[in-house]
Specification:
The structure is a single chain. By secondary structure, the chain is an alpha+beta fold. It contains four helices and seven strands. The protein has a seven-stranded mixed beta sheet with strand order 1-2-3-4-5-7-6, with helices on both faces. Helix 1 packs across helix 2. The longest helix has 15 residues.
Length: 181
């Protein structure tokens, strides 16, 4: 018998969360293909990235253990999809979980919250750039939350001794492209 998903509390990220975020991300950098970085960034670098994203007004959220608001078990954020002005209505999402918390619904809760926050800010499209076409968990998560496959960039990265694809997925936010902003 499988256990019921463990709940998590989702809240805005703050600078105190940076070491936990760096630890979670560092695990994925060193052991996975979701990120094409090969060296885990320092806490200071993750702090710089966090501050830059937050300063631009993009949502940055964390999932914490219930009853322990400082124990971060996952995080998600939106950022600019591309820097040119015509892309200003489109965001790219990132979602990462502590490895022991995968498969418990926390990623879905984070991504659903991120989608809602981006819609509230008036963004119209969300793009996911998923490392590794064999990343069934991330692809499935995005599909369950309304994303569709928009493309595949084959063998675009080389990591852990093999060529790795990027899967592009997209989801309309709010009114999407049905009316002009």
């Amino acid at each position: 018998m499988s256990e019921a998903p463990v709940a998590a509390v989702i809240r805005d990220a703050c600078p105190d969360d940076v070491p936990a975020i760096a630890r979670i991300y560092g695990h994925h950098v060193l052991h996975g293909l979701a990120s094409f970085e090969e060296t885990a960034p320092s806490d200071e670098e993750i702090g710089r990235r966090f501050a830059e994203i937050a300063a631009k007004g993009y949502p940055y959220i964390v999932a914490c253990e219930p009853g322990s608001p400082g124990q971060v078990v996952g995080y998600a954020y939106a950022s600019a999809y591309r820097p040119r002005p015509a892309y200003r209505w489109t965001v790219e999402n990132s979602v990462y979980l502590a490895p022991e918390r995968a498969g418990q619904g926390i990623g879905a809760a984070l991504l659903a919250t991120l989608i809602a926050r981006c819609e509230a800010k008036g963004y119209r499209q969300m793009v996911a750039v998923i490392g590794d076409s064999a990343n069934a968990a991330s692809i499935g998560l995005h599909e369950r939350l309304g994303f569709h496959r928009a493309g595949l960039i084959a063998s675009v990265g080389f990591k852990h001794g093999r060529w790795v694809d990027s899967v592009l997925m997209q989801r309309a936010l709010g009114a999407g492209d049905t009316i002009n902003p």
